[in-house]
Specification:
Layout lengths: L6 H16 L5 H6 L5 H13 L3 E4 L4 E4 L1 H14 L2 H15 L2 E8 L2 E8 L14 E3 L4 H7 L4 H9 L14 H14 L2 E4 L6 E9 L5 E10 L5 H5 L2 H17 L10
Antiparallel strand pairs: 1-2, 3-4, 3-8, 4-5, 6-7, 7-8
Helix pairs in contact: 1-3, 5-10
């Protein structure tokens, strides 16, 4: 981590990532245990981030959490740079129609960022939630977005995958993943076959521009107790229709005009 090529700013952002990855208030000692920075360097970064309100410090518990300034920036990014505001009504309609969990995701370098999620009346407990980051190589949304990357970019992203085996069904090497990517290119949709979590399955489609670039991906997720892959596959036309509506609205979307009129 200390070898970041982006200088001081890059290193500070790595500290923010480290705090966020805990998913709970974290003590300095815990950060130090997992940090490649010397104690004095890490402390300096933490103090600067706290002074800039990117981190918040609880004196009573002596713990750090993401700060309110970071929350504000994150909300602005969500509103201006993600598909979530555009897709919201379409996710509502799709989830209501299919009665299953719907995910909206975008590719963040080599990872999947879940930017929105809709639960059915009887939600299923699973890893994903809005704002969480997941692996690209073993999720339905991740694989369909990989399939539509330009070849050079795809090669770079594939090199960055961990290929950790989460379940016995996880595609744990580049060759097996590429076979799935090719199948997705031919069919236009992909599956998560219990590859990330046992019992959790999904079908996913990309959200594509007119030029064929993936803006994001949409999935319907369920469990093996409720349905099977064939049952999810029958939902592909509905998911594709929803994805196309989101893509069309995204192409026509413009920043609000904030200039004052005389």
């Amino acid at each position: 981590m200390a070898g970041s090529s982006d200088g001081t700013v890059g290193k500070a952002l790595e500290v923010l990532d480290q705090v966020a990855d805990f998913g709970r208030p974290v003590r300095f000692g815990e950060l130090l245990e997992g940090s490649a920075f010397p104690k004095a360097t890490l402390y300096r970064f933490v103090q600067t981030l706290t002074n800039q309100r990117m981190l918040s410090y609880d004196e009573d518990r002596q713990t750090y959490t993401p700060g309110l300034r970071l929350v504000r920036l994150a909300h602005t990014a969500w509103a201006q740079a993600s598909l979530a505001p555009i897709a919201r009504p379409y996710l509502d309609s799709l989830s209501e129609a299919v009665g299953e969990t719907v995910h909206l995701a975008q590719l963040d370098h080599a990872h999947v960022l879940y930017v929105d999620k809709r639960n059915p009346a009887e939600p299923v407990q699973m890893y994903s939630s809005a704002g969480k980051v997941g692996p690209a190589y073993c999720t339905g949304v991740g694989k369909v977005m990989l399939a539509y990357l330009p070849e050079e970019e795809l090669s770079t992203v594939l090199d960055q995958q961990s290929y950790h085996r989460f379940t016995s069904a996880t595609l744990a090497n580049r060759d097996s993943l590429m076979q799935d990517v090719q199948a997705i290119r031919e069919s236009g949709y992909g599956f998560d076959r219990e590859e990330h979590e046992p019992g959790i399955i999904c079908v996913a489609v990309p959200i594509l521009t007119e030029q064929g670039r993936a803006l994001g991906a949409l999935s319907v997720t369920s469990t093996m107790r409720r349905t099977n892959l064939a049952g999810l596959e029958r939902l592909v036309p509905q998911i594709r229709e929803t994805a196309q509506k989101i893509a069309t609205d995204a192409a026509n979307w413009h920043f609000p005009d904030t200039q004052k009129t005389n």
